[in-house]
Amino acid sequence: MTKSFEWYALNPIDAWFFRDGTPFNRGEDHGNNGYMFPPASTTVSGTMRYSFAMSNGWDLNGTWVNQFDNKKPGPNHEFGKILGDGSQNIGQLHFCGPVVFNSDTPLFPMPRSVLGHHHFDLKKKSHSFQPVCMNVPGQELQSDLGSLCFPIAERSEPVESKAPDESKAPDVTDDFFVSLAGLNQIKLGKPPHKDDCIHSDEIYKLEPRVGIARIRNQRVVESGMLYNPQFLRMKKGFGIAVGVHGIPSTWTAPRLIPFGGEARLSDMRRVTWEASSIEFSKTTLGSENIAISLLTPALFVDVNERQHLGSTPWWGGNAGDNASLLHPQFVGKIKCASIGRPTRIGGWNSLDRKPEDMLPYAPAGSTWWLPSDALSQLSGSILQIGKRCEHGFGLAVVSQVPT
To answer: What contacts 24+ positions apart, CB below 8 Å, involve 222-229?
Structure first.
């Protein structure tokens, strides 16, 4: 996909509230509500479309299509063409991300191609991750699923210092992010530096809150109406960034936007960074195998097929399946994969006033290993796999695999 993106950073004015797929029904027990960070791509694309419409003349009196497109032509008569209409049609826009942003420097979910040791310092109450080697495809083994290969640890280079728990086997991590410098190392098939691994505790702090429902005329709490949302208090300098393609150059960009649950205000500003670092380059195809790692969750399930046997699995494909299940331009077979637990993402349809279908997504960090020629027919720079890529889902990075 060859598109130029304008990047915007979003920083909270107070705190953010991003729900996960945990049921949140009135009158039920909400003592263990989950959260999602970074937020779903649809959450970001939705608020960006809403905010650009507001800053360019939409008055909230009906849909922007009814306000502009159905009247006589004017400067904004193509709102429907530009912004779309509803969650399934986002017009000419295309989003990339979101990614975590810290003082104009992006952070990415740690790919599951990286193995290391997770250590918790009781005195400092801090987490650290020492990468030690990379996951690589192993030899084919006979299993109950047939002849398959599985990811195995392969030390690519001696680590700088001994890991805190050297006696334990290195493992993947879902709690750490990696800096841009660390991601560039991973793209070369090398483990990142320890200092390039940032734990989520360094990015945000959970801020649980308690909410009630009141009987207004009696001024008492309604029975059973107690809930406990988990807010995110971002550490200083941290926020998220998203790339947008298709906004007219003549449009005014908003400065303050409502974002996430409870429409919490956020500051929005234009930023620049070396986005070429996540672009696909065929120079990566020099090794025997390549690894495809997700930077945002990816959807492979078709909403119309998800209840039928034989539909595409939520994790994209099994070892030995056609690589075209991940992307129509991929060729060859999937060698093996390391996939985290599914991320369940739904949403709210503001036009029909009803919830969106809750679907399982392959989580960020998930990695597939393919033969290097699998991407030989691929064109474009930014790589996105799966469905709903226009919202920003399926952003992926290609890396070499040590031999």
So the answer is: 224/27, 225/26, 225/27, 226/30, 227/24, 227/30, 227/33, 228/30, 228/31, 228/32, 228/33, 229/17, 229/19, 229/30, 229/33, 229/261
What class is the 279-400 domain?
mainly beta
Strands (E), 13-102: 94-102
Mean pLDDT of 202-216: 88
Cβ atoms within 10 Å of 262's Cβ, excluding its own: 14
What sections of 77-193 are H helices per DSSP? Answer: 79-83, 180-187
pLDDT at 68: 65
Q: Are 149 and 336 in contact (CB under 8 A)?
A: yes
Predicted model pTM: 0.89
H/E segment holding residue 53: helix 41-55
Domain ranges (residues) in the chain: 6-104+232-275, 279-400
What pLDDT is recorded for position 283? 58
The DSSP letter of residue 261 is: G
* CA-to-CA separations, 240 to 16, 95, 266, 381, in angstroms, rounded: 11, 13, 11, 22
